[in-house]
Amino acid sequence: MVFTAVAVWLIGAMLVAARVWVLLGAHDRVYVDAKRVPRAKVAIILGAGIYRDGRPAAQLEKRLDKGIELYKMGKVQKLLMSGDNRVVEHNEPKIMADYAAAHGVPRQDIIMDFAGRRTYDSVYRAKHVFCIDEAIIVSQYYHLDRAIFISKHIGLDAYGVAAKSAGGEKRNGAREMLACVGALIDVYIRHPKPILGSQEPIL
Questions:
Q1: How far, in whole angstroms, is CA 198 from its chain's centroid?
Q2: Mind giving me the DSSP string for 112-174?
């Protein structure tokens, strides 16, 4: 009983410590007001799921709306849609691109990354496949600290702009604590290499 209690306490402490470490390493680069974020050539919009009928999930739609807002404000010149397309039936980047085009973003200013399976992969590929040195990352507030933290360690100079919430903050916040542990392992220990391929510089 005592051993179980101690183990639970240690796990909890580890999760909190990982979250705090990530927050301290990135919180000064996360913006809620898009007007205040420094300009960059590219906004990276991180995938967040799609519905079976081909629409962006609610959370993803909020991210897309914020990315489109940044584009129309002149904060960025290009939108990089980074999502999962590991199976034919799940083409997240295309749906993201179609949504942006339908809302007034020219197709030539939309780039699709079909191998952004997770945050680390999206950031790594932005730097090493699309040759981006600086960017604005778009996601919900709870997620941005981790994305910026990873960017710092990969060599991508990034700021974050928070999209509106689509609900589920408590569930997502708890999941994010575990994800922060994974991010620390990735940047300090594993240094994984995602799917790469030929470089496709964003001009």
A1: 22
A2: EETB--SHHHHHHHHHHTS--SEEEEEEEHHHHHHHHHHHHHHT-EEEEEEEPP-S-HHHHHH
140-182 pLDDT per residue, tens: 988 899 999 999 999 999 999 999 987 766 676 678 888 888 8
- 44 forms bridges with which residues in the sheet? 80, 137
Residue 1: what residue type?
M
Strand order in the sheet with 30-31: 30-31, 157-163, 134-140, 42-46, 78-82, 110-113
Strand 78-82 to 157-163 pairing: unpaired
Q: Given this model, what pLDDT does residue 25 score?
A: 72
* CATH numbers and ranges of domains, the chain: 2-190 (3.40.50.620)
| pLDDT over 90 at 4, yes or no | no
Contact 120, 150 (CB under 8 A): yes
d(CA 84, CA 115): 6
Tokens 């990089």, residue located? 80
Other C-beta atoms within 10 Å of 73: how many? 12
d(CA 134, CA 102): 26
- The pLDDT value recorded for residue 12 is 60
